[in-house]
Amino acid sequence: MRRLAALAAGRISCYLRDLGQVELLRTHAGFLSQDLTQEELKGYTNAYIDSISGEDEEDAQGRREQQRLLLLLRPEELSGEIAFVCVQLAVLYYMERQAGEIFEQICKGTGTGATIELAARLVCGEKEVLDYYAETKEAYRRVELLLQAEYPVRNFMTAALRADDRLIDWLNGGSDLSLLSPRFVEWYEPKQEAEPSFREGLLDRMTGQFLQTKDHGQPEQISVLSVTGEPYSGRRFMLRRIADRCELRLLMADAAFLGDMDSLLTQFRKLLREAMFEPVELAVTGLPSRPETISKLRIITDEYEKTLQYAWKLNVGDKPSARPLFVTAEQGVKLVPMLDAVVIAGECRAGDRDENFAAWEYFGKKYLGERVLPSRELTVKMKLPTGRIRQVAQRMATVAKDRQIDSREVFRYCYELLDDGRYDNIKRVETHYTYDDLKLEESQKQIIKDICAQVEQRRLVMDDWNLRSRYSYGTCVSALFTGPPGTGKTMAVHVMAGILGLELFKVDLSQMVDKYIGETEKRLEEVFQRAERSNMILFFDEADAMIGKRSEVKDAKDKYANTEVSYLLQRMEEFDGIVIFSSNFAQNIDAAFMRRIRFVIHFPIPDVATRKEIWQSSFAKEVPQENIDFDYLSRQFEFSGGQIKNVVLNAAFFAASEGQPVGMKQLIRALQLELTKDKKVSFKEALGAYAQLLYV
Question: Is 568 exposed, middle or buried (0-12, 13-18, 19+ CB in 10 A)?
């Protein structure tokens, strides 16, 4: 670097001496020379070029980069010599800011760095620079990217050209991208061995199309290789695998590095400079699905193609071929119809069960060794992108090595990763009931077991037995629980969640239905999208308002209410998860909806024997009891399970406040409170033989 700066100082020294500016030379004698001749300067310049071109190992640091610099500038031509001197001036200004005062003296108004006008004057002497306008303009084209000129430029003759930290680092043989951005830019070197992609079909197709375009495309064009998908779906990994196969080095920059439209070109030109420094392919990752994304890409591709065409024109050692721009973007970004370049597009969709199973197996063995994950169960019950599967395996590797992995602990962490807080209308419900808590007939319990079996055996039936080829849609595991309030519908859903080890999310329909046209459908779509990602159990409680019979269309309100029901039916057809609806009145359910329900369970008011079980099981073993007549309670009151629990809970609080065990006295008081909800009931008749306890 010092030699380049010294050459610039020598140029200025000779120029000022020829003009008779001896006083200025004396003022800056620290880096200017009063005795240097043009012949000596030419000798130093040739020696510098020879030292770069030489094969000896002495002073080899940065030689490869400076050789490429000479290829870019071509100092043997007049335009190249002007460009080379401009780079020298920029390096001198970087190392000695007092040089700016001299620049100002030579070219008025040039106090902020080197300019092409200044370099042209030093090379051409006091001749009119306009006599060499073509050469000067060409010199500017050769250095404006290297020295990061303002873009677009107003006057190329006076545009400020500076050497920055990254250019100095490169000229010294470095490749420190933290000088561009400590967070958003990184190198990727091709590897001989890489992790499996779990999407070999997509990888083969995109690699084949890219190689074909590279070999047979037009050299003056670029191609855009685009991978879209949801976060953590393996988009960046897919780019790296393509680079591995094609032995390409990538410069990967997150879209956040480019900033907004105002700073886009300035930031992208820093990446373009890296592509001129040495053969490297650019990759812009994480483009959002926003309206300005396509506009940004058009600007990027135009600038990239223009820069590469100029680099090939200079013949800097790269074989002219259709160079690619690698891109990753969110779902929904469509590039093929929007860009003039050849676009090779692929989407990292959610893997099928075979691919996900392979991912669980691979990362489980990689991070856990012998303590394997429950891969088959996870494949059936969780729908995580590949990147998230890796995170789960890494997290489970922190579990104490002296114990096996608990599948419920794995599920819990999976749901933590999936819960991004975007869905306000879905409420997570803690499940703590067990199968023994259900007080139902065996036929009803068997249906619940059958529902769970359809989830547990989905991989075997749909994939191994290939029934998915016959049922491409309509595979939703759906159930309708009907019956009076308090008969155990909600408890049954809790039990199912506990058996399957899945999260239970209750959908608040009061927040779903919206008076504005289309809003209800939009909110329902958000709910189903989240359920598809996490394979949670969707529970629509008291869903009569949503799945009721469609009415005759008499006004616009009826029309759009029916549209909401139709949308829900259609979405269930496409859904490959678990949906449970509960309703107090089965007769009000739309017939078309009933046809799409796989299971229906009716929860009646329990009989005497069942009610006795509920009364007894409602008391925890720690609750003190005294002379409770369970036969009387179960025979006398046709209560649902929910009503019985209300009575037991109130009685327990009465007993606690009185400092006594729970007995019939407290239960009768609690029964009275429950019976007051029905104003037609006579307490004396309803309470029977224990009615007198009300007055004790």
Answer: buried
Report cis status (omega within 30 of 0) of the bond before 182: no
**CB within 8 Å of 348: residues ≥ 6 apart:** 199, 202, 227, 228, 229, 230, 233, 234, 235, 238, 385, 386
What one-letter code names the amino acid at 690? Answer: Y
The C-alpha atoms of residue 32 and residue 38 are separated, in whole angstroms, by 14
Indicate the pTM of the whole model: 0.76
Q: What is the pLDDT of residues 130-161, one digit of tens each?
A: 788 899 999 999 999 999 888 888 889 888 89
pLDDT (tens digit per residue) in 186-229: 999 998 667 888 888 999 999 999 998 877 767 667 889 999 99
Closest C-alpha to 636, from 685, 584, 570: 685
Residue 578: beta bridge partners? 477, 537
Handedness of CA 352, 354, 355, 358 (dihedral sign): positive
Query: Counting every residue, how long is the chain?
Result: 696
H or E stretch covering 166: helix 165-171
DSSP string, 472-519: SS---EEEEEESSTTSSHHHHHHHHHHHHT--EEEE-HHHH--SSTTH
Closest CA to 342 of 228, 246, 210: 210
What tens digit of pLDDT does each residue of 356-395 get? 889 999 999 999 888 888 888 888 888 888 899 999 999 9
Answer for the pair 662, 653: CB distance below 8 angstroms, yes or no: no
Say if residues 671 and 662 touch (Cβ distance below 8 Å).
no
**Rounded Cα distance, 20 and 14, in Å:** 10
- pLDDT category at 459 given cuts 50, 70, 90 is confident
Residue 231: both structure tokens together = 């976060």
Half-sphere exposure of 197 (CA within 13 A, CB side): 23
Handedness of CA 44, 46, 52, 56 (dihedral sign): negative
Closest CA to 85 of 25, 36, 45: 45
